[in-house]
Each structure stands twice: as C-alpha cells, then as structure tokens.
C-alpha cells in the first residue's frame, strides 16, 4: 500500500502576498464603516490606499516567487469588494440616501458591482490564455478594477472640496456611474502601467515626477485625485488609437510574410 504523499508546508514568505491582500480587504470593509459613520474622507482614503496596495501585492508575490492560484482568487475577491462595491455604497450613502432618486442611486450601485464582477471573471479566464501577442500585454481590456473604483469616487472628491451642490446632480451622477460600470466590461484597450518601459536616461525625471505627485497627494489630496481621474479619462482615446495603430502594424507585418499575390 503506497504511503501518503506529504504536501510541502508553505513558508511564511509565501503567505506575505496573501496577508497583504487580506489587509486590503480589511481596508475596503473599514471604508464602508467610515461611510456609515459619515466620515467620508477617511472612507475614501481607505479605498485609495487599497488601490496602491493592490498594485503592490502582485509584484510582491512575483519578487518572493510565491504566486499561487488561491492568491489570484483572493486578489479578485478583494478587487470586487474594494472597487466594485465599496465606492458605490459610499456614493449612495453620501448623495442618494433620502433623496427622491434613491432608487436610481441604488440601481447605479448594482450596475457598478455587477459590471466589476463580470470584468474580474473575464480577467481570470483571460489569464490562462497565453496565445496572444506579447505587445497586447501592454494593454488592459476595459478599465481595470482599481481605476473603476477611483473613477466612481470622482463625485465624492468634489464633495470633499466643499461642493455640496453636487448632490443636486444625482441623476447625472447616476448616468456617470453606469458609464463607469460599462467601461469596466467594455473591450476598450487601456494602458497597463505595469508594462510601461522607462528610458534609463529619463529615470531621474520620472522619480522627481513621482515625488511631486506624492507630495501633491499629501497636501492637495482631493484636487490631486480629481486631476488623476481626469487625466485617466483623457488617456482613453489615446490608448485606443495607439492600440489600433499597433494592430494595423501587426496585420501589415503578417500580410507581408506571404508576399504579393500574383494574378492568374
């Protein structure tokens, strides 16, 4: 009778990325609690911090060589709640609660959550598809979940700057949230920051720019987040055009392999 095969016990190093993801989930849950208590500034900072850590946990896993299937699934669950559910709930509590259009606001919350879940499901399926050109990895399909959450919170950023009258535009905010949800499940190619190549000669300027952005985020938090959202929205047509040019270039290269077709 064959003995049982002992499974190798995971080391603490392999658990670190999952612990970071669990901490990110706690940030999302805490943001909802702050929202229920009316502390919207703290609530949104929890989500912004979750977005930064979400970008870091995957890189940490690769550095520590501890990428696991359960880590990928846990990361998707964290993204779904933190960027698909929590931002919508905060907007509903802060803007739609007690208004004549509360049902519209809740519909927007549902639309945002469902679209984000569909996007993450598509992303998980696409991860096993390796039969794609390498250059396509430089683009996401649709708006990634962390950016969906930040875009959804754009009205809240204005609210934190004292623009209380934004609550009067609840129907416009409803339309905006639905559009953000549709962008999540769209096939629009968007730039992937993970694959941006930095010229070594420009490294110093990039570091100075990042330092300036961090300083601006510390001092002018809401203004900086608004600017980031606006810049990202403006980048969407740029990424679409760049992707289309790359696609045409690839098609031209493929057709050139076969050479001109002689007429009979």
Task: Present the secondary structure layout.
Elements: H1 12-36, H2 40-63, H3 69-96, H4 102-126, E1 139-141, H5 145-152, H6 154-160, H7 170-185, E2 189-191, H8 203-219, H9 221-258
Antiparallel strand pairs: 1-2
Would you write up a description of this structure?
This protein is mostly helical. It has one domain: Four Helix Bundle (Hemerythrin (Met), subunit A) (Up-down Bundle). It has helices at 12-36, 40-63, 69-96, 102-126, 145-152, 154-160, 170-185, 203-219, 221-258, and strands at residues 139-141, 189-191. A two-stranded antiparallel ribbon has the order 1-2. Helix 1 packs antiparallel against helix 2, helix 4 packs parallel to helix 7 and helix 8 (203-219) packs antiparallel against helix 9.
**Number of domain units:** 1
Number of helices: 9
Q: Give, in order, the helices and strands.
A: HHHHEHHHEHH
Strand order of the largest sheet: 1-2
Which residues sit in consecutive blocks of at least 5 with pLDDT less than 50? Answer: none
For the secondary structure, the number of strands is: 2
Helix-strand makeup class: mainly alpha
Q: What is the CATH C level class, in words? A: Mainly Alpha
In short:
Helix content is 71%, strand content 2%.
Characteristics:
mainly alpha; 2% strand
């Amino acid at each position: 009778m064959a003995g049982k095969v002992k499974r190798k016990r995971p080391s603490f190093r392999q658990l670190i990325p999952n612990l970071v993801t669990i901490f990110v989930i706690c940030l999302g849950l805490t943001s909802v609690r702050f929202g229920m208590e009316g502390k919207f500034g703290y609530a949104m900072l929890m989500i912004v911090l979750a977005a930064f850590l979400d970008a870091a946990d995957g890189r940490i896993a690769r550095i520590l060589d501890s990428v696991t299937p359960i880590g990928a699934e846990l990361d998707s669950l964290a993204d779904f709640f933190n960027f698909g559910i929590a931002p919508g709930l905060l907007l509903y509590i802060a803007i739609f609660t007690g208004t004549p259009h509360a049902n519209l606001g809740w519909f927007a919350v549902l639309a945002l959550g469902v679209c984000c879940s569909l996007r993450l499901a598509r992303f998980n399926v696409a991860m096993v598809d390796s039969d794609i050109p390498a250059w396509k990895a430089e683009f996401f399909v649709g708006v990634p979940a962390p950016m969906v959450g930040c875009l959804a919170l754009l009205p809240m950023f204005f609210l934190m700057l004292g623009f209380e009258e934004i609550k009067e535009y609840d129907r416009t905010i409803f339309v905006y949230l639905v559009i953000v949800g549709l962008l999540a499940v769209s096939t629009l190619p968007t730039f992937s920051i993970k694959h941006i190549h930095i010229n070594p000669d420009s490294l110093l300027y990039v570091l100075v720019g990042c330092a300036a952005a961090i300083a601006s985020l510390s001092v002018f938090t809401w203004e900086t987040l608004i600017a980031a959202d606006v810049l990202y929205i403006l980048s969407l047509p740029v990424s679409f055009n760049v992707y289309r040019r790359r696609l045409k270039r690839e098609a031209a290269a493929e057709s050139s392999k076969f050479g001109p077709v002689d007429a009979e």
